[in-house]
Every structure is written in structure tokens, then in C-alpha cells.
Amino acid sequence: KYVRHQRYDEAQVLKGDILMGKGDLLASKKVFTELTPDSGNLFLYAVFQVGKIYRALEDYNGMVEHFENYLDRDDLFNKQRISEALYWIGWAYTQQNKIEKSFQIFLVELELYGNIPETNEVMLILKVLDDLYLQYRESGYVNQLKDHPLITAGNFETWLLTESENAFDTGKFTYASRINLYLADRLEKQNRGVEAHNLLIKIINNVPLEYLDAEGLGKTGLIMEQQGDPLAAERFEMLLENFPTHPQRALAYYGFARLALKSNDFSRALSFIDKLTDELPGHPLTTESTLIRGETLIKMDRADEAITCYKDLLRLKSTRGRYHARA
Q1: Exposure string (b/e) for 54-71, b if CB count within 10 Å is 16 or more?
Q2: pLDDT per residue over 188-241, tens digit each?
Q3: DSSP letters for 264-300
Q4: How far is the C-alpha of 313 from the C-alpha of 28, rounded, in Å?
Q5: pTM
Q6: What pLDDT is stored for residue 195 in this prediction?
């Protein structure tokens, strides 16, 4: 009725989201696909909502075609989220067991976007490649990629180490830091903590701050905070300034809370813990933050509140093990 109204496109997006929430996916898809590039960021939002619908419907052919059509459009002045669209194409191929196609997509994406701090999919891509690596080598579908360094390396860790060294040597510092961050997480899970720590120290010593993404700033900042380095705060500040909406801003909140606790600024510590738990309740650091909250409350002579805090933690099955023991 009010197609020409200035907020018509916003209403369409809201309608699409409501239909999605009700489970009427096909009707929601129809609403979202009616938006055009003239709708600006709402069009971009609609494109990726349609991608979610294809994912929910397990229509992987449709998902590939949808994102390929988006990437092929020539009527967009400033095409955004290209790396994300490529990721979902590769992901859809993976669900169809088209391993070679997904590998090719992911490897191209690493080459194009691995060294750009603003892209968010690189760590996800490394995880997918890691998971698929043995399956791909054992599948026999290695003809097109048989000479690629990933295939000739012998194992995934060797490839990661080689990629890291090459990236450092060629000045691709963002990509080098991401490889080291991923490999450090991998080594930690294998109880190889010293090797993991050394990879993070290499980032601190060799990668200029402006090349670090949100995770790089946060994780290296936490290492520096643990070592008592006063420059840790600079990394947390830069994370919040450059990536104010990124989920890994939780690392900065957590780091600032720890710094405040060390300096006996207990109110400031609690304020950053509150930011983390309120804004990012599902982040892995939420549990650690709850423990710091308890420690802070004890130092503020608020023992009853600290006990309540620890009891709340003990009720959670997800925190069993060392977290329960600490609580």
C-alpha cells in the first residue's frame, strides 16, 4: 500500500525477519529478494539473510548460485562482504562433499583476503581446511591441486609453518599473525603450550600494530598483560577503537579488567567484566570473567556477593572441571 514510503525497505526487512522467526522460510526469502541495490545496506543485509535461509533449507546448490549471483552483479557501486560470500560458497561445496571445489575456493580466498585485517573469515577457513585436509588427501581428488604447497607439505602443521615463514618474509604481516594465532590454538589443544606461546611472542616482536586484526590485538595484549608489560593497554585500546563491534572486543574488556584488578581499581574492573558479560554473554571468556568478578568482590570485602557469584558458576554444567575447582 505504501511502496513509495521512505521506510518501506525497512518494513520489508522487518517482515522478512518476522517470517524467518516463524519458520516460514520460503515466504521470508521472497520478501528479502524483492529488495534491490537501491536499498543500500538493507539490500546487503537481505542478501545474507537469504543465504541463511538456503542454509536452513539445506539447499546447497541454491546457496552457491545465490552467492555467485551476488558476486557477479555489476550494478553495485561498492560491493561488500565479498570474502564472506566466498566463504559460504566454499562451505556449501563442503556440505555437498565437493571437497576439491571447496578447497579451491578457500585457498583462493586466503590468497586474496588473508592479509586484510578487516576480513573476518580467515580463521574459519583455516579451521575448515584443517578438518578437510586428510579427507581431501585420501579422497584421490588431488589432480588439480597436486602441486599446491598444501598438498605437497605432507601434513597440515608443516604447511602452516611454511605459510607463516613465507608471510613474514614477504611482509604479509596480517596473514602471518593469523597463521600463528591459529597454529598456537592448535598446539595448545595438543598440550604443546611452550610452542604455542613462542608463536604469539613472535607476533608481538615482529608484527606492527597496524597489521593486527581484532583477535591478534587481543591475544597478544593478554600475553603482554600476563608478562606485566605496560604497553598491553595500548593493544586493548586499539582493538576497541578499530573494531568496536567485533566479538573479540571481549579480549579487550577482559584485559582491561585484569589490569584494573592489578592496580586495585576494583570498580573499573567490575565495569569491564559487566561489559563483557552483558554484551557478549556467549564468549569463551565469560567464565574467566566470572571468576575475576568473584576475586574482585572479595578484595572489596563483598564476600557474600562473591559466594553467590561462585555458586552461580558451580550450577553450570558447561564449566565443570578446572573452572568448578577454582570456584
Answers
A1: bbeeebbebbbebbeebe
A2: 999 999 999 999 999 999 999 999 999 999 999 999 999 999 999 999 999 999
A3: T-HHHHHHHHHHHHHH-TTSTTHHHHHHHHHHHHHHT
A4: 39
A5: 0.84
A6: 96
